[in-house]
Amino acid sequence: MATLSYITSDIQAAVREKYGHELDVNDIILSPTKKEFEGDYTFVVFPLVKVLKFSPAQIAEELGQCIKANSRFVEDYNVVKGFLNLQLNQAFWQQCFEELSDQKFGQAGRNGKKMMVEFSSPNTNKPLHLGHIRNILLGWSVAQIAETRGYEVVKTQVINDRGIAVCKSMMAWKLFSGGATPESKGMKGDHFVGDYYVKFDKALQKEYAEWQDSGEADAQYDARHKDEESREAFFKRFRNDYFNLYSPIGRETKEMLLKWEEGDEETVALWKKMNNWVYSGFDKTYEALGVHFDSINYESETYLLGKESVNKGLSDGIFYRQEDGSVWVDLEDVGMDKKILLRSDGTSVYMTQDIGTAQMRYEEHAMDSMVYVVGNEQDYHFKVLFEILKRLGEPYADRLYHLSYGMVDLPSGKMKSREGTVVDADDLIKEVIDEARIASKERGAVSHLEAYKQEDIFRKIGLAALKYFIIKVNARKRMVFDPKESVDMQGTTGPYIQNAFVRIQSVLRKASQAEAVDMEGSNIYIYNEAEKELISQMIGFPEVLDEALRQYDPSHIANYAYGLAKSFHRFYHDHVIYDPENPDQSASRLELVKRISLIIEKAMSTLGIEMPDYM
User: Fold this and answer.
1) Are the C-beta atoms of 457 and 615 separated by less than 8 Å?
2) In angstroms, rounded to a whole number, what is the distance separating the alpha carbons of residues 484 and 495?
3) What span, in angstroms and rounded, lies between the C-alpha atoms of 205 and 174?
4) 3-state secondary structure of 581
5) Which residue blocks in 494-554 are alpha helix, DSSP H?
6) CA distance linking residue 372 with residue 368, whole number of Å
7) Does residue 472 register a pLDDT over 60?
8) How confident is the model at residue 417 (pLDDT cuts 50, 70, 90)?
């Protein structure tokens, strides 16, 4: 905020004049004065005590005198121990108003830096679900915040389009579909394919249950069960071994994967067809959420990357080879363990692929930094990846960040996709929009609008409810999403913030229609402390954006928007904003709330949330 920087400059000048000390602007702690004290902004002088060798009260008093005598904006001050409370004049608040009038307020100029943000990155054996929504919303918000603060941003994802899980859906379709397609069933493609992933698991469960009554199963239990381990517990644990060693459907599926790897024409054709069904479904979900990508990588095209780098690292002594021919990296010197990079048969592992993908992206995009939005179960993986890239001397290696996030549960509990109990993204989007429709119709505030306009408002409210409820929670925390609570107009919710915006639009429409106040031709004047508080909140918006970006944490902006909306609602309740009998005050307050609506809209836009004009 440029106007506030004048105050920090005044403080620097006073320290220089009184003590001959050059105070770094980063050492100036300046924040709104607490309500129980007089003043507008408070400067904390305690950090100066050690340098200047005077008491906090003396330093604050001497600086206050000097600043008052020389500042164009500070009209008075008071000292409370080591806190210098500054009272600012009308000129300060009017200049703040001028800055807030800039339509680009909060938008930084291009900084010449490029950031890549990877998010979503789903598998092609099932639809996007609630966990993906948190990932997508975090990634999109971080990208929007970075763009707002001057970065060129490349939004990307790696689609996991190969492997045994994808082949399970393919095998189930071959066995059970009778040639059905998404079109013939009237389904979205990702839901259609996901149903076959569930069908596969049910077929495997049936097959496994029958096998457990065989002599072969008895022999396995007798030979391998732990002391006092029941048959039920043993066979629950043995499930993956059964799939790999004994299952007929498992054997067919693994053969299908081998055929894919060998380029078998029929297998590859089926793989492409089913993946295209899924991509079509994904695109519809992304569109509903209002997100898109600038670059997409596919695991089928990247899984062989990284081998060359690993072999070079081996020749450079960064990695080492075991007796069986496998290649490893030893990270014990930095508190991690030894990690395999190439198997003994020369095939790669996920870490190898991630090394190669990072290098490929740098070659293509030359990004200055990279953010990976991935769940916290992969924390260790990314610590290892980043350390390996450092040892390989990659120029971007110290500017990589793993935005780790906790899982999302519903009030009813956890989700499991292979059992078909997962809450998919499309159903959840529909549910929150339905909740918004019910709540809006009960209020009756949009009944005068045409049906299609009403539906657009329901969509905006529902998506705001979903997005805000998820983003307001720090990403690292596990959370429970409650659709009904998310649309509450009185809680810490997206609709509560939208309602502040809508109220402001209503007041502005009323004033415009009455034509009793000339907003353009009136001088702005700040009448009371409540108005100052609102301006102080607004001028802090750029700092909130910067802090959210520093921490890769959009919840800072979500909480800021809620705080500003809450302050407006209180102001709306306690003060008359539009009064035809008091045109000067009305003009100032109408301009004030107009700016509040602009800041709320900008803040929520970085979270991917749209504002309705009615609700």
Assistant:
1) yes
2) 12
3) 18
4) coil
5) 494-514, 529-539, 541-550
6) 14
7) yes
8) very low
Encode burial over 539-566: b for 16+ CB neighbours within 10 A, e otherwise. bbbbebbeebbeebbbbbbbbbbbebbe
Percent of the residues in the chain that have a pLDDT greater than 90, as a whole number: 87
Cβ atoms of residues 268 and 260 within 8 Å:
yes
Both tokens assigned to 56: 């906090």
- Phi–psi pair at 578, nearest 5 degrees: -115, 115
What value, to the nearest 5°, has the Cα angle with vertex 147 and ends 142 and 152? 110
For residues 385 and 6, give the distance between their C-alpha atoms in angstroms, rounded to a whole number. 45
* Beta bridge pairs of residue 338: 330
Q: Which residues neighbour 471 within 8 Å (Cβ) at sequence distance 6 or greater?
A: 137, 138, 141, 554, 555, 558, 607
The per-residue DSSP string of 352-420 comes to HHHHHHHHHHHHHH--SEEEEEEEGGGHHHHHHHHHHHHHTT-TTGGGEEEEEE--EEBTTB---GGGT
Cα gap 200→203, rounded to integer Å: 5
Residue 143 near residue 117 (C-beta atoms within 8 A)? yes
| CA distances in angstroms from 282 to 120, 253, 288, 428, listed in the order given | 10, 25, 10, 14
Instruction: Give strand pairing partners of 30.
Output: 43
pTM over 0.90: yes
Per-residue model confidence as pLDDT tens digits over 249-262: 999 999 999 999 99
Residue 418 pLDDT > 60: no
**DSSP element (H, E) containing 310:** helix 307-315
Q: Among 117, 122, 137, 118, which Cα is nearest to 428's?
A: 137
- Quote the longest CA-to-CA distance of the chain: 96
459 conformational bin, left if phi > 0, alpha if psi -120 to 50, beta if neither = alpha
The CA-based dihedral angle spanning residues 308, 309, 314, 317, taken in that order and rounded to the nearest 10 degrees: 150
| Closest alpha carbon to 422 in 431, 435, 440, 409 | 409
- Give the angle 139-142-147 at the CA atoms, nearest 5°: 125
Phi and psi (nearest 5°) for 330?
A: -105, 110
CB 34, CB 55: distance < 8 Å: no
* Terminal Cα-to-Cα distance of the chain (whole angstroms): 33
Token representation of residue 469: 């409820």
Report pLDDT for 518: 62
Beta-ladder partners of 348: 342
Average pLDDT (306-310) is 93
